[in-house]
Write a structure and sequence with these properties.
This protein is an alpha/beta fold. The chain folds into 2 domains: 141 residues, NAD(P)-binding Rossmann-like Domain (Rossmann fold), CATH 3.40.50.720; 185 residues, Dihydrodipicolinate Reductase, domain 2 (2-Layer Sandwich). 34% of the residues lie in helices and 23% in strands. It has an 8-stranded mixed sheet with strand order 13-12-11-7-10-9-8-14. It has a 6-stranded parallel sheet with strand order 3-2-1-4-5-6, sandwiched between helices. The longest helix is centred in the last third of the chain and has 20 residues. It is globular, with a radius of gyration of 20 Å. The structure holds nicotinamide-adenine-dinucleotide. Nicotinamide-adenine-dinucleotide (NAD) binds next to loops.
Length: 356
Amino acid sequence: MKYALIGCGRISNNHVVAAQNNNLEIVAICDLVKDNMEDKVLKFKLPETVHQYTDYIEMLKTEKPELVSIATESGKHAQIALDCIEYGCNLIIEKPIALSIQDADAIIKKAEEKNVKVCACHQNRFNKSIQKIHEAVEMRRFGKMLYGTAHIRWARDYEYYARAKWRGTWEQDGGALMNQCIHDIDLLRWLMGDEIVEVVGMTDRLKHDYIEAEDLGIALIRFKNGSYGIVEGTTDIYPKNLEETLYLFGEKGTVKAGGEAVNIIEEWNFSDYLDDPQVIKKECSEIPPNVYGFGHTKLYADVIDAIRNDRKPFVDAEAGKRALELVLAIYKSAATGQSVKLPLEECSTMDFVGRF
Ligand SMILES: NC(=O)c1ccc[n+]([C@@H]2O[C@H](COP(=O)([O-])OP(=O)(O)OC[C@H]3O[C@@H](n4cnc5c(N)ncnc54)[C@H](O)[C@@H]3O)[C@@H](O)[C@H]2O)c1
């Protein structure tokens, strides 16, 4: 399957590895900065058959890739995605899928019209720990869901933001919730039952006065199934990443996935005693080299299978929109001081320019 990558920055390494692990035919890479492409060529020993482009439209016209991944600044995802779909490409779009509900809807609509698959890159859904928890949810082992909590206690310093000026801006990124915490927010929403009635949020910029958006977000969520959610996410922790943790509490089950990025099962208790908690904790925990985890390779495998078998990807564009919607709802509640009802018809990170 002919594959191309747009955006050769920090996360792109995971995409090249995932493409190679899945034996995709990498026909092209694209970046506005030639040196960034050269870095990929050297690091991954890419052959000369991998052509380099600074203009993705030219790349799409010339190479006609079947699958493209978009790993540029978040604020550029939507336009690039719409252009790729126009050229008939299936897509893996880095998270967040877009920065407004309107753009996410446009991507979903156009992908349907052109009959292409779109996957939102929430790779943590493929963590062993999360797959096992999802299985328990599907088997209804929790009984009635009571509440769930997501805690993202990470650290990002001045150098991190200075390396890429788009980070922390409303136009290209959003703050801690939209960028760093959206994986855990996605997991909480998905595993608690997806449908949300209302959200109450507070956000602030406590430590990073050189970015536009928030570095701390707190939210309460009321789900349609009668359960509740709590989100607490920050990039303010001193001196380094502490944890990305997810708790799920049901009438008949308690689970905690922790570690630096929800990669370790720390609690596994169910009234049905269907399995041995010690065995599950051992078998379903893994320690990846960084917070990005091992998920990209599995996510790619799923998308390739989805294209070949004409089915939805496991993490489709709708899933990407739901994670985006929850973050935007928290932003809106924080800005207005009111609870926000879902679904959100229209909302964009640009609505919050000048907030702090
Ligand atoms: N899934 C994850 O765990 C994860 C982790 C980090 C970042 N991300 C997401 O990945 C995206 C990229 O983040 P990053 O940290 O790699 O950013 P980065 O700034 O390191 O890289 C972005 C790259 O895109 C290139 N680019 C910009 N416009 C382009 C265009 N029109 N055509 C081609 N290339 C273009 C830039 O030159 C740059 O090299 C963001 O959306 C971010 O939220 C996801």
